[in-house]
Structure formats: C-alpha cells, structure tokens
# Entry
Amino acid sequence: MLRISVIGTGYLGATHAAGMAELGFEVLGVDNDPAKAAALAAGRVPFHEPELPELLAGHVHSGRLRFGTSLVEAARFADIHFLCVGTPPGRNGAADLSQLYSALEGLVPHLTRNCLIVGKSTVPVGTAEALTARIAELAPQGISVDLAWNPEFLREGHAVFDTLHPNRLVFGVTTPDAEWALRQVYSTPIADGSPVVVTNLPTAELIKVSANAFLATKISFINAMAELCELTGADVTLLADALGHDDRIGRKFLGAGLGYGGGCLPKDIRALIARAGELGAGEAVEFLRDVDTVNQRRRERVVRDTLNLVRATGNARPRVGILGAAFKPLSDDVRDSPALDVAKRLHSAGVEVSVYDPAATNPARAVAPQLIYTATAAAALHEADVVLHLTEWSEFRDLDPVFLRTVARGGVIIDARNTLDPEPWLAAGWDFRAFGRLVERRTTPSLAFPLPDSVPVQPNPASEPARALVTPSPLTRLRSRVRRTA
Ligand SMILES: NC(=O)c1ccc[n+]([C@@H]2O[C@H](COP(=O)([O-])OP(=O)(O)OC[C@H]3O[C@@H](n4cnc5c(N)ncnc54)[C@H](O)[C@@H]3O)[C@@H](O)[C@H]2O)c1
# Structure
C-alpha cells in the first residue's frame, strides 16, 4: 500500500489528508505551525468545515492518519508527498512561493527512496518547471524524484464531498510512472466516475487559475449587470434566472451582490494578471483588472450607502449591525472576506460595528479586534441604525423580522447578498433595500381584472425566494413600494 505525506495542513491539506486516509492510505500530515499540527494530531480540526471533524477524528483514532511537524519524518515515511502549502499574494499581486520552496528544502535532502512529489497548491504557470530544477539540486545522489501537478478544486464548505468525489481530476505529469501513481491514489473516485484529464505541467497549473478567473468573471459580470439594472428599473435576480436557464450559461455564480472574496479567487486572479505581465501577455488578460474593479466597487458601494444612511440619522454614535463575517457560508474563512472588509471600513469611518457570524467569530476577531462580536444575530442588531446582510448563511433566512424590528433602533436593512425574502421584512415595517433588484410587497394578480400595464408571470420555484409576482411596467413601478439603496 502506498504511503502518503501531506505537507501543509490548512484548509486544503487537512481535508486532503483525511480524504487520503478515507481512501485507504496510511497518511502523515506535516505542518510547520506546531499548534495546528498538535490540534490535528489530537483529532481536532482548527477551522470550520462541515463533516471534516468526524472524518479526521475517525482516522486519527484508527491510527491511519497522523500529524506532526517533521519534514524529515515525512521524507522517510512516504512514497508520495502532496504539497498543500499556501501561495499567498506577494509583491504586486504575484504569488509568494516561499512556502513551496521552504517545504521542498526541508523535505527533499532527507529523501531515502525514489518518490513522487505532487503539487496541489495553486501556482503561477511555470512554477512546476522551476521547482523541478530546485528538486534536482536538493535530491540526494541516487534518489530519483518525480514532480507532478494535481490542482485542487474543492469548495470550502463542501470540502469533504469534493475531496472524495472530485468533479474532475487533473494530472499534470512528465512521466508514465507519475500518471500511474496518481491513478492508484485516486482509484476509488475514478472508479466512481470522476473524469481524469492528463496534461503537461503548465496546462495543469493554468487549468486551476483559469477556472478561478472564469468564476470571478462570472460574478463580476452579473454585478456589472446589477449596476445597469439599478439605473433602468430592471431586476438582476430575474435577469440571472433567465440567463441561467440557458445551459451554455448556467445559473451558478450569477448571484449579484457583494461579490467574491476568500483565500482563492481574489489572490488567484491578481496572480494571473501578474504572471501574464511577466510573460509579456498582460494585454490578453487586461479584462481581469476590470473584473477585480467591479468586485471592489460592490464593497465601496455598501460602505457608501451605509454611511449615507447612518449620517442621515444624526446619531452622534451611529451603530451598524452586521450579519456575517466569513467570506461565504459554511466556512469560518475570513481571508479577504467582503463582509469583514465592509465592517472594518465602516468602523474606520467612525461607526460602531457589531457582527454576528455562526462560525467565523474567532478568526474575525483575530484580524479585526476593533469590532464588536456577538453570540446571536439579535445581539448584533441591538440598537443598530442600519442592518447589513453580508454573508448568506441559510440561518439568516429564518430570522424573525418582527422581533428584530423591536431590537434595532433604525428600520433599514440592506440585503447585500440578494438572498433574503423581502416580503416578511417589509411586512414587519423594515425599509428593505437590495442591489439591482426590485423590492416590493407581493400582490395577488387578479385574473378577472389584470392591471392593463402589467404582465402576470408564474414564479419560478427553482429561483431565489424573493420574487416579484408581477413584472411591473414603469407605471406600476411608480405605484409599488420600490426601495433601492440611494
Ligand atoms: N482553501 C481552499 O479552498 C483551496 C482550494 C483549492 C486550492 N487551494 C490552494 O491550496 C493552497 C493552500 O491553501 P489553504 O487555504 O489550505 O492555505 P492555508 O494557509 O490554510 O494552509 C497552508 C498551510 O501550510 C502550512 N505551511 C506553510 N509553510 C510550510 C512548510 N514549509 N512546511 C509545512 N507546512 C507549511 C501553514 O502553516 C498552513 O497551515 C493555496 O495555494 C490555495 O490557493 C485552496
């Protein structure tokens, strides 16, 4: 049986290590953060990821999965070494590859047998070639080391499922032996139907960054359309539904709102721009700068509108209650979180900001201690002049707007994720605002006397919960309770 090491056990590596154990391998996870390694060795996951605690603890207790801090031990232990260290943004947005180099420098000189090193971190195209040269310098004499690239596509919040059932496997290889070894590692998901794409190293590297660049582009596209919708009285959620019915487009990643964030999309798109510039192909990806700009503009917009609203109250100590801190639901990851970015900017502008997030309080407090964190949504909204819905946790859709209206001081909520149903909030007396979307009380279309200037449409059960039952003409729009942020 192949023995596996996983080097770097953060969000990606801890999940990958547990997944490899679940697939039947003996696994050693190595991290240079002793506290993280100790927590994992005790069977505790130091971040929020559904299903991972059970999976990881089960294999730690069975003895199939171990964690430590020694790359020397990993070098002696494993036949295949997965590199899962971070590639954070460095100068000018280019990826900082120092974690990769330091991992190799700690590992390769201590290898005692021929092995395969597999990169899973997201890297600029050309990195694997440079690492191959470095490995050749570091490898002990007589030891043959192969390098492959196997980029990871897991989604935080669904990481366990995605690791065990990858929607595709990309094997960037230079030898048949490397492909054979990767097919052994992933034999179970391959047998279950995961497609395999075998490529050279640069293609594998580019597949990952171009996938993220495409997803970011899709989000910024719909946010750009949201800006047009606001100027014209169109509704971006219905527009996205209609676009999504075209299977060449698809509805996923067409959620207009506060835009993308997290530890991957923002850094990967900037690293791609930087790498393209180094290659002399900056113009080819110039549009990605606009994608980034549109995304940043969403955050600025929420901050500007919120400041206008709180200043209008005349309160000397305005207060904003924020729902969400994580960059997305089902995760406690606050890296480049749009929600936390907005919260911090409001605080810098003199607003008292209280935040509730079901999972991300501790990571958020670690990077933004100046904010107030609460144990419940209601506590965050206590005496708030304005409420912001910034991370689309499903539990926020179940909040009681009637009760919350008695808790908050002001009655304005901005749904910056376009995932709340405006109806109960409006009914409870809230001034409900959203971006690019019509917000109005539902009316029951009368079949006997349809409004002459309206077109009754059937609600789409597959689409977002909040829906205008009547597509209003400009005239009905004037009559309806339309609320948009100023
Ligand atoms: N998080 C995701 O959802 C995801 C998905 C796909 C790809 N990726 C990519 O995977 C990589 C890792 O991402 P992450 O989110 O897990 O980052 P992370 O920061 O959570 O984890 C990186 C880990 O590597 C450890 N580390 C750094 N240098 C080390 C060394 N020399 N030896 C041992 N350990 C070392 C760090 O202590 C940390 O625990 C990045 O390139 C990222 O772009 C992440």
